[in-house]
Amino acid sequence: MSTLREIADRLGVSTATVSRVLNDKPGVSQKTRERVLTLAQELQYRPNLAARSLATSSTKTVLFLVHRRQFSAAEDPFYPFIMHGLEEALKDDGYNVMLVTLDDAQLAAGPANLRVLQEQRADALVMAGPDISPKFILAASILGLTTLLVDNALRESPFTSVQPQNEEGAHTSTAHLIETHNHTRIVLMRGPQGWASSDERTAGYLSAIHAAGLEPFIVEMEDTTTETGEEAAKQTFKEFPETTGIVAVNDAMAIGAMRALGRMGRRIPKDVAVVGFDDISWASYANPPLTTVAIPTVEMGRLAGRLLLEQMNGSISATTRVRVATQLAIRQSCGCDDELAPAE
Amino acid sequence: MSTLREIADRLGVSTATVSRVLNDKPGVSQKTRERVLTLAQELQYRPNLAARSLATSSTKTVLFLVHRRQFSAAEDPFYPFIMHGLEEALKDDGYNVMLVTLDDAQLAAGPANLRVLQEQRADALVMAGPDISPKFILAASILGLTTLLVDNALRESPFTSVQPQNEEGAHTSTAHLIETHNHTRIVLMRGPQGWASSDERTAGYLSAIHAAGLEPFIVEMEDTTTETGEEAAKQTFKEFPETTGIVAVNDAMAIGAMRALGRMGRRIPKDVAVVGFDDISWASYANPPLTTVAIPTVEMGRLAGRLLLEQMNGSISATTRVRVATQLAIRQSCGCDDELAPAE
DNA sequence: TTGAAAGCGCTACCAG
DNA sequence: CTGGTAGCGCTTTCAA
Predict the structure, then answer these.
(1) DSSP assignments along B75-106, one per residue
(2) Can you list the positions of beta strands (E) in A180-320?
(3) How far is the CA of B50 from the C1' of D5 (A)?
């Protein structure tokens, strides 16, 4: 590996000059500039990042923080795609992304206790998912790093954030059940209050229900897994026996509900239509294929990356809340036919 | 953030002494050692990694390389779990993991062209998946970094690698079809020759077939997606109309095949039994739930991390091929009943 | 337009 | 057992 010094020596100039050229700083004659550039090119020179970091205290790395529960087998991986998009958007600017999974203890201990931060290894923090507590986020924000939230946001505090259009998405899927399939008794299966995405999707459901002059029915669970989805299905027909449509705040719940429905002898979508949210990888392999709201995960990551860059170079204010559009993925669980319907 | 110098000054000792203590090096009196440790503790001191890297040229970061196609929506994410396990195993030793997704151009250009490597940002390379070409791997191995392969290995060259027990897994699932369900005409759907896991699973299929004195039937596709699985199903009944069992080298193919089978009017598992490999997250939501071979992905990542550490501190030879045990996940597509059978 | 030199924070060698 | 000091490779004043 060649160094700055080497280039300087071979050209008979100082390292200061070479550094200026390589960093596009003014005060170097066109002629020397070209000589330096040529030799650097020829030598395949790249600055040693450790050295540059030490001198500038900029590390060119961003941390992707996510709760480790997101990597349990039960969860459909959502954040890896975001991380991928993030990495893609950042790499051209020389930034790299480090994965940091947090367990509950680390979350409770706060960001200042993270070794990777204590060692000053990062310039920025991308915190993904509602699993990361407001307390943690707030504590992180005073650490002096550029901070961005993905699939999460704090109501009270200003943070740059990238989220799916949860409300619009749920409105659309609910309206689909109402307008296209003429349902009037539609239950919402949701997670705990305070979970941003769950709250917002609830709002979308409500706005569609109210716009149609219908009555809302809500089943609130303490989690949004396939298991709680199954539980929610039972509860639904106990509380609201005339239900013909179900809107679940995510696909896991929707699929759990479909399982339970099957066991209860109810046909989907004939007896009850189901729509989910997320469009996780197996939504189209559910039985029947699940109609759901697709989130452009990789694109969300890319967008987060772009925003982060702008934030770091100061071209946008520290608080930019961005929403990315979702799309209704119509399959069969809502009552529509799709082109892949098995010829049974 | 406090520095080494600060500790030294406040204690009236040299930075050399403090450094020795903090790095557990000999040549410091018990008394000073304790004074240093105490103050360091009190100050929450952590060495600045950029400075340490510059001095030692050890970066405490490992790169997780994976082909970007693994993050396309079509693929079931497999490597993020491995990455998570890797990160977990490494974090206690102060190592962090960076994600690097490679596109075809980067793969062709070789590792030496990766900016992250040119900038000397990493100590080690974990290359995941058979998408990474032998040429790339070989080129990487001469870069002087510790190198490890996951879910891949080179026949000809010695590399530390962590792979699932592909052969044993496929043997077990094939034998299950033979012994438990009495199938005698079992087709293998496989991917291209040269793909390590596909080859090995083929070997497992063959050994089970031969052990039972049966005749092998193989359909070889140029890829292992749901699409090629559908195609393979059609081809299967064109070539081997009496097939009653299908072993697919992965779940994507198996699920694709099940789709096509459904459309062809064949009942699963009544007319034809199907088993997959991988136990991707939606295998249990397939219709019917897919019997498959489960791979402990997170554990594979952890193991890779441990091996990497041992390799870096020289306690194991550079070539240790490790296999992790798989487990047959019995559901319904093979003909077994599972406890969650819908009451239809 | 250029160079000398101080430093970023740490490690490691050489004396004492 | 301890301290002084020379780097690691780069950036950034300050002078020239």
Answers:
(1) SPP-HHHHHHHHHHHHHTTT-EEEEEEE-HHH
(2) 186-190, 217-220, 245-248, 273-275, 292-294
(3) 21
Q: Is B88 on the interface with A (CB under 8 A)?
A: yes
Distance CA B228, CA B72 (A): 16
Nearest-CA distance from A51 to chain B in Å?
6
For B1, the token pair is 């953030």
Taking contacts as CB-CB distances below 8 angstroms, the residues of chain B near A67 are: none
Is A50 within 8 Å of B53 when comparing Cβ atoms? yes
Q: Which residue has the higher pLDDT, A175 or B76?
A: A175
> Does any CB of chain B come closer than 8 Å to the CB of residue A139?
no
What's the gap in Å between the CA of B3 and the closest CA on chain A?
11
pLDDT classification of A343: cutoffs 50, 70, 90: very low
CA of A318 to C1' of D12 (A): 28
- Residue B169 tokens read as 């897994």
Distance C11 C1' – A17 CA (angstroms): 28
pLDDT digits (tens, 9 = 90+) for A285-304: 777 889 999 999 999 999 99
State the Cα angle at A294 between A293 and A297, rounded to 5°. Answer: 145
Task: Determine the Cα–Cα distance for residues A202 and A225; give it in Å rounded to an integer.
Answer: 17
Contact of A38 with chain B, judged by CB distance below 8 Å, is answered with: no
| CA dist list (Å): A142 to A105, B328, B336 | 20, 49, 57
Residues contacting residue B99 through CB under 8 Å, at least 6 positions apart? A64, A83, A84, A87, A96, A97, A98, A99, B64, B66, B83
- What would the two tokens of residue A133 be? 């507590």
Q: Which residues of chain B have pLDDT under 50?
A: 339-344
Burial of B224 (0-12, 13-18, 19+ CB in 10 A): buried
Two tokens at A241?
Answer: 């026996």
Q: What is the pLDDT of residue A341?
A: 43
Q: How far apart are the first and last CA of chain B?
A: 65
A253 close to A189: Cβ distance less than 8 angstroms: yes
Exposed, middle or buried: residue A30 (CB in 10 Å: 0-12, 13-18, 19+)? exposed
The C-alpha atoms of residue B264 and residue A167 are separated, in whole angstroms, by: 41
For residue A61, give the chain B residue with the closest CA.
Answer: B98
Subunit contact B94:A101, Cβ cutoff 8 A = no
Average pLDDT over chain A reads 93
**Which residue out of A63, A65, A84 would a mutagenesis test of the B interface target, given it has the greatest number of B Cβ atoms within 10 Å?**
A84
Rounded to 5 degrees, what are φ and ψ at B187? -95, 140
Q: Taking residues A72-87, report their average pLDDT.
A: 87
